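Sequence, please.
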């Protein structure tokens, strides 16, 4: 006879696997009316025109489908835009628990944790995402910015360097790398990144001048 404690453990394990396996298919099974609400919420959030409308719409999706991972991620982003980081952290953590192999979710967890004063949770989220393969340069930049905000400069540089390899013609990758060096007062390294980017016509002087952190570094490049 199996002991009751083992039965509980086995049942819990089966439950976790079952939930995780069903998460991707839940997105495909979202009813048309709720799918429309989700995309309208996403559009409203991206445009910034009405964050409260965006939240109201995605609330309806989550009320009907509480394990809709994409909807939870979207609401977490909306809540961050509304400066409601505590609630955003709750949604982001639930999304991460539902589908722990989603790097984008951990980026949201990291931001929400940092903004709600949970430094250790933010670093833990970064530990988790570092174990995943990320083929999205923009997500690498987002993670690099979070690492920089947490003063995890080695990680910030690693994310940014990977982004530069993945998207060498994206100016944001060069700007982010230069910012990492500049914030550490590594002016020569930052200047080299900017000089190479400007010469390759990947970044413009105007974009650098618009960045208060890099404006002083640009003077070094100009003087050279």
């Amino acid at each position: 006879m199996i002991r009751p404690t083992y039965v509980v453990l086995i049942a819990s394990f089966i439950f976790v696997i079952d939930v995780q396996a069903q998460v991707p298919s839940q997105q495909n099974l979202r009813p048309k009316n709720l799918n429309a609400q989700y995309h309208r919420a996403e559009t409203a959030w991206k445009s910034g025109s009405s964050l409260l409308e965006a939240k109201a719409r995605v609330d309806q999706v989550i009320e009907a489908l509480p394990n809709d991972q994409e909807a939870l991620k979207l609401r977490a982003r909306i809540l961050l835009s509304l400066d409601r980081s505590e609630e955003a952290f709750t949604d982001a953590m639930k999304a991460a628990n539902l589908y722990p192999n989603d790097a984008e979710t951990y980026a949201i967890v990291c931001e929400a944790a940092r903004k709600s004063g949970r430094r250790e949770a933010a670093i833990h989220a970064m530990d988790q995402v570092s174990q995943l393969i990320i083929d999205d340069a923009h997500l690498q930049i987002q993670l690099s910015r979070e690492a920089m905000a947490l003063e995890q400069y080695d990680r910030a540089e690693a994310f940014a360097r990977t982004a530069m390899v993945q998207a060498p013609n994206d100016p944001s990758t060069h700007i982010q790398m230069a910012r990492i060096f500049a914030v550490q007062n590594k002016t020569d390294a930052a200047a080299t990144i900017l000089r190479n980017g400007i010469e390759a016509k990947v970044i413009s002087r105007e974009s650098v001048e618009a960045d208060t952190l890099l404006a002083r570094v640009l003077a070094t490049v100009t003087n050279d």
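The longest helix spans residues 4-28.
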